Amino acid sequence: xxxxxxxxxxxxxxxxxxxxxxxxxxxxxxxxxxxxxxxxxxxxxxxxxxxxxxxxxxxxxxxxxxxxxxxxxxxxxxxxxxxxxxxxxxxxxxxxxxxxxxxxxxxxxxxxxxxxxxxxxxxxxxxxxxxxxxxxxxxxxxxxxxxxxxxxxxxxxxxxxxxxxxxxxxxxxxxxxxxxxxxxxxxxxxxxxxxxxxxxxxxxxxxxxxxxxxxxxxxxxxxxxxxxxxxxxxxxxxxxxxxxxxxxxxxxxxxxxxxxx
Length: 261
Hints:
Helix content: 40-55%
Number of strands: 8
Strand content: 5-15%
Number of helices: 10
């Protein structure tokens, strides 16, 4: 059984972490599946938005505890000469979301701690359950949040609050996540997925090129580069828009029936 399942509904893809018996605990197999899923969806021009969620009651409980045992991922990292490269491979399972040419909405309910919350933070928007349990737990366990929290948290909430969440490893709920600026909205757990899907469908109503360029420009931390990307995107999107509007008129002048723009 695949650790990640993909479902399609029109222009919206649903990416489902599929280890419900382990509360969607993450392991190298799941990271490989996420990388593969990201490559496939990013190459599909018909995908204009995605929802990332977990099968069962939890989004993701973090790293699978089995990976702490002899032979597990952490033991492999500790012993490998190419240890940093192994961590980079895991990071790529999260990084593709930031670079995806469409927005990704996280639907978070139940538990999202450690690697779980870092996966949610990689997404562009988060809809969370009011009673969700969230934590950047690594420092409290003697480790480092190496899958993106050190980049995403400061961008979302500022340096001081990011350091508070990372260094204290404290737990917090969905309502506080909204007040901190980590989530767009908090809703009852039973409504999380429907809310996230409805939001993604609203986003997917826009052309993919506009979504892609706007996301790239907004996520770019360097102001000059952000403006440059916005300008490039504007040129491409305006050309596409004008072409779509003028070509049917040209077709109608030739005597053919043209579709409405």
